[in-house]
Amino acid sequence: MAVTVSVPTILRTHTGGEKSVEASGANLAELIEDLDSRHSGLKGRLVTDGSLHRFVNVYVNDEDVRFAGGLEAAVKDGDNVTILPAVAGGAR
Amino acid sequence: MGGVLSIRRDLVDAMVSHARRDHPDEACGVIAGPAGTDRPERFVAMMNAERSPTFYRFDSLEQLTVWREMDAADEDPVVIYHSHTATEAYPSRTDISYASEPGVHYVLVSTRDPESHELRSYRIVDGEVTEEPVEVVERYMFTHTGADDVPDAR
Q1: For a tag on chain B, would you pick the N or C end, based on fewer CB atoms within 10 A?
Q2: DSSP codes joined into one string, B68-122
Q3: What are B91-141's pLDDT values in tens digits?
C-alpha cells in the first residue's frame, strides 16, 4: 500500500494526465521527493527554498498541512494527499 | 475558448450582491458548471479567509470541500470571482501571480463606487491578462445545449 495523491488539473502535465497517483514517504518532504522521481518536475511546482509554495494548498487526508508541520507533516500508507491550487489575490 | 463570458443575470446579481455585502472587505467565490461546457451554473460564495479590504484567499478547508463536491458532480470551476473595493475591476499583480487555471473566467467586481458597480472578466494564462466581453443572458440557450434540454435529441 502507498499514499494516494490527488493531482490538480494544472499539474497533470507532470503525471501524464493522471488525476491520482501513488507515492511513498514518512513525511510530506519524502513523499514529494518520491513523487518527483516518478513524475519529473512536480517538486518544483510544490516547493521553493525548502518550503511549500504559497500558490498551492496541500492536504493530508482532510488537514491543511500549513497547520500540521508543512513539509514535516507525517504521512503513512493509506493516507490521501490532495494538492489544490491556492485561490487568492487582491487589490494590493 | 470563445473569448466571451456568457453568464446568466441571476449569477451576475449574486456576485454583485456578495461584493456589496462584504464591502469594504474583498468578497470571493466560484461558479461551477458541468465539466467541459464553459457554462457557469452553480453559485458558491466563499469565505475570504483574510477578511481584508486588499487581499483575499479562499479558506483552504472550505475550498477542499467545494472542490470535492465539484469533482463528485463532474463539474469544473468556470468562474472565479472576487471584488476590489477601492480600485478598478482589473487584475492586480497579486491576482495575476495566483491565477493558475487557464480555463477559468476570472471575474472582478469593483465596489468603489457606492452607486454603480463595475464587473469585468479576464483570462489569465501564464501571467498574461486578456479581457473578454461579458454577455449577460436571461437563460442559456442554443449553444452548449445538453441532450437533456432538447426533447427530440437522440
Answers
A1: C
A2: HHHHHTTEEEEEEEEEESSS-SS--HHHHHH---TT-EEEEEE-SSSS--EEEEE
A3: 999 999 999 999 999 999 999 999 999 999 999 999 999 999 999 999 997
Choose among A57, A86, A89: nearest Cβ to B82: A89
Residue of B nearest to A89 (CA): B95
Q: Which domain holds residue A27?
A: 3-85
- Grid coordinates representing B57 are 484567499
CATH 3.40.140.10 fits B5-138, yes or no: yes
Structural domain boundaries in chain B: 5-138
Rounded to the nearest 5 degrees, what angle is found at the Cα of B80, between the Cα atoms of B50 and B128? Answer: 100
Residue B10 C-alpha, separation from nearest chain A C-alpha, in angstroms = 24
Q: How far apart are CA A9 and CA A19, in angstroms?
A: 7
Q: Is B80 exposed, middle or buried (CB count within 10 Å of its CB: 0-12, 13-18, 19+)?
A: buried
User: In angstroms, rounded to a whole number, what is the distance separating the alpha carbons of residues B29 and B52?
Assistant: 15
Mean pLDDT of the residues in chain B: 92
- Cβ atoms of B91 and B80 closer than 8 Å: no
ipTM: 0.91
Confidence of residue A7 (pLDDT cuts 50, 70, 90): very high
| CATH at residue A40 | 3.10.20.30
Phi, psi at A8, each rounded to 5°: -75, 160
